[in-house]
Amino acid sequence: MYLFLSILASAHVLLSTSTMPKALTIFCLGTQAISFDARLTQMFCIHFLFVADSAILLAMAFDRYVAICSPLHYNTILTPSIIRKIAGATLTRSFCIIFPSVFLLKRLPYCRTNIISHTFSEHMGIARLSCADISVNVWYGLAAALLSTGLDIILITISCVLILRTVFHLPSHEAQSKAVGTCGSHICVILLFYMPALFSVFAHCFGRKSIPHYVHILLANLYVVIPPMLNPVIYGVRTKQIWEGTVQMFLQLGK
Questions:
Q1: pTM for the whole thing?
Q2: Which of 36, 145, 171, 210 has its CA 20 to 30 A from that of 102?
């Protein structure tokens, strides 16, 4: 569990780092210029890390499933070798899903405005600047979201259902409370991560005219700022060892 938490925290730090420095220079220094290649690089990093985050949450759901539903086999199933393979598969899947979007954007002609009305670059945000047909980009973005995060959500939901079914058959009330608390913190993180991100994707694809533009910008900022900010708090409060380690760290700093 702690290995997955550290991987998730690293991905969140990289996700915020790929967006917030440029956003802060826009707000604080008024430096709004960014090259097209830099824009594509930022877009790739954001979507790559988002898909990777989704896969990490799925891996954590599997980790909780094994820990609660098959605790005696936990150490034999989730070995360090298996965790390394999960991490490798996560990065490979994210790269394979997101890398084609770079070429889909580079093939488009850009003869309209070169101003993107966002604090950072998204796939559909860049594609909307083109003066050509972007139907391929729209459908690819939708398919990528459904086949990656959409599939992850389905698998995470299945794992939660199986976990809850096992929890309610536990003989100890204390064990039930502990298991529900662990799953509850994970579900909170999942909702914080998926809801604004998926709403932003579908709003870009289908609600461009009906949804105000500032809503698009707000949602885009939410899913790269809120989860990295609140996830450490959620897991820190719900996980006894992390809470005790944090208190001990502050006590040592105060000496």
A1: 0.81
A2: 210
**Signed CA dihedral, 141, 143, 146, 151: sign only:** negative
Say yes or no: domain 2-230 is CATH 1.20.1070.10: yes
Q: Which residue type does 184 have?
A: G
Alpha-carbon distance 80 to 98, whole Å? 27
* Side-chain-facing half-sphere of 205: CA atoms under 13 Å: 18
| Amino acid at site 43 | M
| Three-state DSSP state, 112 | coil
Contact 109, 29 (CB under 8 A): no
Cβ atoms 125, 104 nearer than 8 A: no
Q: What is the mean pLDDT of each run of 10 residues along the chain (255 residues)?
A: 81 82 77 80 87 87 84 86 89 91 86 74 80 84 82 85 78 68 70 72 64 73 76 70 78 75
For the chain, the domains span 2-230
